[in-house]
Specification:
Structural class: alpha/beta
CATH architecture of the largest domain: 3-Layer(aba) Sandwich
Distance between the termini: 127 Å
Low-confidence stretches: 1-41
Mean pLDDT: 91
Shape: globular
Number of strands: 14
Radius of gyration: 34 Å
Strand order of the largest sheet: 2-1-3-4-5-11
CATH class of the largest domain: Alpha Beta
Order of helices and strands: HEHEHEHEEHEHEHEHEEHEEHEEH
CATH topology of the largest domain: Rossmann fold
Helix content: 40-55%
Largest sheet: 6 strands, parallel
Strand content: 15-25%
Length: 388
Amino acid sequence: MSLKSKRDLLKLAGWSTLAATAALVGCGKKEEAAAPAAASAPASAAAPKPEPLKIAFAYVGPVGDGGWTFAHDNGRKAVEKEFGDKVVTSFVEKVPEAADAERVFRDMVGQGNKLIFGTTFGYMEPMLKVAPDAKDVKFEHGTGYKQADNLRTYDSRTYEGAYMAGVIAGAMTKSNTLGVVGSIPIPEVIRNINSFTMGAQSTNPKIKVKVVWVNEWFNPPKETEAAQSLINGGADVLMQNTDSSAVLQTAEKNGKYAFGWDSDMTAYGPKAHLGSAIINWGPYYIATVREVLDGKWTAGAGKNSWWGVKEGAIDMVSVAEIVPADIKAKVDTIKAGLKDGSFSIWKGPIVGQDGKEILKKDEVADDKFLSGVNFYIKGVEGKVPSGK
């Protein structure tokens, strides 16, 4: 082959190599151009929104009782306002403190509720039966004292409100006889009667306190009858530890004074109303729901919360204009002392009906003592009933 022919072949091979290289480069450019298109594709769908926490409340009375249940339902509404679409709440009202309560709680579990509040003392045993069968559900029992792995208890220091009511009652009575309509003779209620008496004694050492028991939380006709009986017996200022507004209304009809209990009851008897010892369940319910949502809720033995003035759970509100200014100031001072811990209601010396010392001078009752109060102090007439 001639030199020229070899050169021609080499030239041809060179052109072929260049063409192949160009083709490869061209392919590379096409791939690079495709990359931005992939990057500009629609973003992947956002993660699905978590299901709202389903919360159920069991109430012993009607939501319109104006007192205990009404206060709990206000707490439920506070939860809805605080957490919006993160929660779904429901309630069942007028659930009896009996075997039927167990059926209600099991139904709440079956409906997918993961947090259940039982809002009265008599739900303790039914809730303890249901809790072990629903380990993924968190149970909260109001005013109880028995806990389980997924059940804890909570309460409010209603005796603080009772004491402040007593301070006002002692100053406003003319007969020196006060009356209390009691519901069920458990430590909570007996403690409130004694606290009311101590508050009254702080402003009027001459007072005596009469008690009529109705053995129910909500029974307006019985509450009315009990209130009338106390008035007929000489009481001119009444307090209650029942759930309706019947006591205040009875006082209004008789031209006497009384207090609202659990909720602000001013509207039910504006002339008789001296003030309302209210419970605000909102702070506790909101704190509890937040714990559940954050995965920080815990239960078990000893898991009990007892909130009062300090935590914003108890207050004396709508104190009547007819209450003397110095008594209003005294109530405000008590509130401040309860809030900062400088004042204790159950501080000795305190003596029982028999004159025996219950708490020594300057001795302060602890929560264990307060949880077991089953006696009347000096100043309360009658005997503590043995039960229902």
